[in-house]
């Protein structure tokens, strides 16, 4: 029976789906959703077993060849991680005759004999350990080298992260595959009338800079506020700053800063914004300002470019790789440099127009269809096909 399955090339593919949660998708979750929503439809002859750790939204079970399973307990903290990955999930899959297990969120099972494909977006916990809760940091530090060793193949989303893994853990280069992300299809340019409606609804009819991402220290919102203050001081503009992202971790400093912030009436915190609204917010922005300290890829950069919005971002980690020659760059620890780029963009319309054109070309280099096709090849190799 097993030989017959191999000859027919029909496989059972387990997919870790614990972060596919409605209205909570961020980097890892968007990547997994975009890729696997395509793969399950492109390969109907194969069964995909989606492992959730809680009740799930039915939109993630988008094809008949998906078998959803809920494996308890909820895996959100180190002890529950350890139990879920090493005991509960392997027991669930024990008799399923699974050919490959996709670990889409940076962790792997250390007990299973199923070949695993491990997706690692970045090693931020090594570069900025102070930005991660200590109990998560210790888990990452202790187990990441074991996960990398245990996995049959490793996928990451940028050349930067691939080299980072090689340098930090001496992993064989041939074990690591770069499969980059892309902008979601919903992000694109909108009409002048739609832009005016968005500005009326969110920014009192004014132009605005947009920051997208969860509010936690690595995203560097405090330095962005300092930069925005300098921009307002130099330019005396009525521009606003919109912040679209959930309150994630260590956000108290940002909220405290805003209470006494001189331009607090020009800063709008929007919390988590659903994708359809975020796409319009992005397309109506004067510019995206994304001064994160560290990113494995930087999805908002490409989504802004696809929306014909210029981008100012950091000159660190993978962000120059993602933005190419189509973005303005500044050191994330230098609010003065960030503010000068905001000012350059504001004062030079020809620069802004050039960045918009270059950004469209840069965004077109990335495609979720290409991402899915590349990942499929790695899945086949992991399964030994």
Strand line-up across the major sheet: 3-2-1-4-5-6-7
CATH architecture of the largest domain: 3-Layer(aba) Sandwich
Q: What number of domains?
A: 2
- Could you tell me the mean pLDDT? 92
Name the structural class.
alpha/beta
Low-pLDDT stretches are 1-8
The description of the largest β-sheet is:
7 strands, parallel
Specify the CATH homologous superfamily of the largest domain: Glycogen Phosphorylase B
Beta-strand residue percentage: 5-15%
Gyration radius from CA atoms, angstroms: 22 Å
| CATH hierarchy class name of the largest domain | Alpha Beta
CATH topology of the largest domain: Rossmann fold
Concise overview:
This protein is of the alpha/beta class.
What does this structure look like?
- By secondary structure, the chain is an alpha/beta fold.
- The chain has 2 domains: 2-182 and 367-383, Rossmann fold; 192-363, 3-Layer(aba) Sandwich (Rossmann fold).
- The chain has 15 helices and 13 strands.
- The chain has helices spanning 2-8, 27-42, 78-93, 124-127, 134-150, 159-169, 192-202, 221-235, 252-259, 275-283, 299-306, 319-323, 335-347, 349-363, 368-383, and strands at residues 12-16, 47-52, 66-70, 100-103, 116-119, 153-156, 176-178, 208-212, 240-244, 267-269, 287-290, 311-314, 328-330.
- A 7-stranded parallel β-sheet has the order 3-2-1-4-5-6-7, with helices on both faces.
- β1, α2 (27-42) and β2 form a beta-alpha-beta unit.
- Mean pLDDT is 92; it is low at 1-8.
């Amino acid at each position: 029976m097993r030989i017959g399955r191999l000859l027919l090339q029909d496989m059972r593919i387990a997919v870790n789906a614990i972060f596919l949660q409605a209205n909570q998708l961020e980097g890892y979750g968007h990547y997994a959703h975009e890729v696997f929503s395509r793969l399950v439809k492109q390969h109907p002859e194969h069964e995909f077993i989606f492992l959730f750790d809680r009740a799930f939204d039915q939109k993630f079970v988008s094809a008949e060849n998906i078998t959803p399973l809920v494996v308890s307990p909820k895996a959100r903290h180190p002890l529950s991680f350890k139990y879920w990955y090493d005991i509960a999930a392997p027991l669930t899959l024990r008799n399923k005759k699974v050919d490959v297990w996709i670990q889409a969120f940076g962790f792997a099972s250390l007990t299973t004999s199923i070949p695993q494909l491990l997706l690692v977006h970045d090693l931020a916990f090594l570069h900025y350990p102070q930005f991660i809760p200590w109990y998560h940091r210790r888990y990452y530090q202790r187990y990441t080298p074991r996960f990398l060793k245990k996995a049959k193949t490793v996928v990451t989303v940028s050349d930067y992260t691939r080299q980072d893994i090689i340098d930090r853990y001496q992993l064989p280069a041939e074990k690591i595959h770069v499969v980059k992300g892309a902008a979601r299809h919903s992000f694109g340019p909108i009409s002048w009338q739609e832009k005016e409606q968005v500005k009326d609804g969110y920014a009192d009819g004014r132009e605005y800079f947009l920051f997208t991402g969860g509010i936690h220290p690595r995203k560097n919102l405090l330095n962005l506020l300092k930069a925005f203050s300098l921009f307002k001081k130099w330019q005396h503009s009525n521009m606003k700053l919109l912040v679209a992202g959930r309150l994630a971790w260590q956000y108290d400093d940002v909220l405290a800063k805003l209470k006494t912030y001189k331009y607090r009436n020009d800063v709008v915190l929007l919390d988590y914004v659903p994708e359809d609204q975020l796409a319009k917010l992005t397309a109506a922005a004067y510019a995206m300002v994304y001064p994160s300290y560290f990113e494995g890829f930087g999805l908002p950069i490409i989504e802004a470019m696809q929306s014909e919005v210029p981008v100012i971002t950091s000159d660190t980690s993978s962000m120059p790789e993602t933005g190419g020659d189509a973005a303005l760059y500044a050191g994330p620890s230098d609010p003065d440099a960030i503010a000068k780029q905001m000012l350059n963009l504001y004062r030079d319309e020809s620069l802004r127009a050039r960045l918009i054109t270059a950004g469209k070309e840069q965004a077109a280099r990335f495609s979720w269809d290409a991402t899915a096709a590349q990942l499929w090849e790695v899945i086949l190799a992991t399964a030994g096909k």
